[in-house]
Amino acid sequence: MKSGILVIDKPAGMTSHDAVALVRRLAGTKKVGHGGTLDPLATGVLPIFIGNATRVIEYLHEKDDPRAKKYRAEMRLGIVTDTQDITGETLAEMPPEFSFPSLPVIESVLKSFEGEGEQTPPAYSAIKYQGKKLYDYARSGADIPDEALRKRRIVVDSIEMIDCQPESLTACFEITCSGGLYVRTICHDAGKLLGCGAAMSALRRLKSGPFVIAESVTPDELKRIAEDGGPDALPMLPADSALRGMPKMALTREDTERFLSGIRLSGIAAAEDEGAEADGTKRTVAVYDGDTDSENFIGIAICKSGVLKPRKVLRQITQ
């Protein structure tokens, strides 16, 4: 089975689960996962991992990376909904003649979210509590425990105003931020600060980890490619393309076979040579078979003080 990563430009109306189901059908395998949920309303970059590549999903975003994701968002002012976007039930709405804030005021409020902060996740979200997603609690009318809605640390690298349209009561902005941040909550919280309420009305993910919108393909394009050339024609990126910012380490053939057997390696001088642990601290590294012509990616390891401990082994030993 071919393994790799497809970067899909998800259209509005399609769920992340729908995208995974489509790729399962086109690739002819059940071993498929995605690299971060996009709500049905949202469009844009959705990395889909196939085969052994699913094992690197957890390494797609570095913890607290302030530039892990980038979005273009639109928020409608003067409305508050239970889902914090326009698909939800309206809880409050300003009269049509309400005073629309000026662009400088909106921009100032959005800029206040830059830097490190905390965010209370929305009740309608895919966050799990005791094995159950929060939106399942919300849809059933059950009380959501305070512990499930505890504030989470977020980092916003930048927020830039793009457009402001008083006639449609909307404002558009781009945000570069850490993973785990909810843009619709930024809109909701901005509405509170503006005193008029706000709900997200559109969202497009431009970047997720190392993947950007320019390298994405639409579901319709994927269908055409699969129809013409079959599963092997799908434009998959290699599994290690998700690890573009991770330090690399190439092993000798002997050490490669030991690594692939799950054996901890010691005396790995290349660790310091390649900058994997220049400060002597523990580092996560992408491991390659350096004796092959093209340095095959073989897994992920923890490196500390010249000791390499396998964490993920991604291919079998070849004779």
What's this model, at a glance?
With 319 residues, the protein is an alpha+beta fold.
Give the helices and strands, then pairings:
Elements: E1 4-10, H1 16-27, E2 32-34, E3 43-50, E4 69-77, E5 79-81, E6 90-93, H2 103-111, E7 115-119, E8 128-129, E9 132-133, H3 134-140, E10 152-165, E11 170-177, H4 183-194, E12 198-208, E13 211-212, H5 219-229, E14 248-251, H6 253-260, H7 270-273, E15 283-289, E16 296-304, E17 307-313
Parallel strand pairs: 3-12, 14-15
Antiparallel strand pairs: 1-3, 2-3, 4-11, 4-12, 5-6, 7-10, 8-9, 10-11, 12-13, 15-16, 16-17
Task: Give short descriptive properties of this protein.
319 residues, alpha+beta, Pseudouridine synthase, Archaeosine Trna-guanine Transglycosylase, Chain: A, domain 4, nine-stranded mixed beta sheet, four-stranded mixed beta sheet, 7 helices, 20% helix, 33% strand
Describe the structure.
By secondary structure, this protein is α+β, with helices and mostly antiparallel strands. It folds into 3 domains: 4-60 and 210-241, 2-Layer Sandwich (Pseudouridine synthase); 69-207, 2-Layer Sandwich (Pseudouridine synthase), CATH 3.30.2350; 246-313, Archaeosine Trna-guanine Transglycosylase, Chain: A, domain 4, CATH 2.30.130.10. The chain has helices at residues 16-27, 103-111, 134-140, 183-194, 219-229, 253-260, 270-273, and strands spanning 4-10, 32-34, 43-50, 69-77, 79-81, 90-93, 115-119, 128-129, 132-133, 152-165, 170-177, 198-208, 211-212, 248-251, 283-289, 296-304, 307-313. The strands form 4 sheets. Strands 1, 2, 3, 4, 7, 10, 11, 12 and 13 form a 9-stranded mixed beta sheet that branches. The two termini are 19 Å apart.
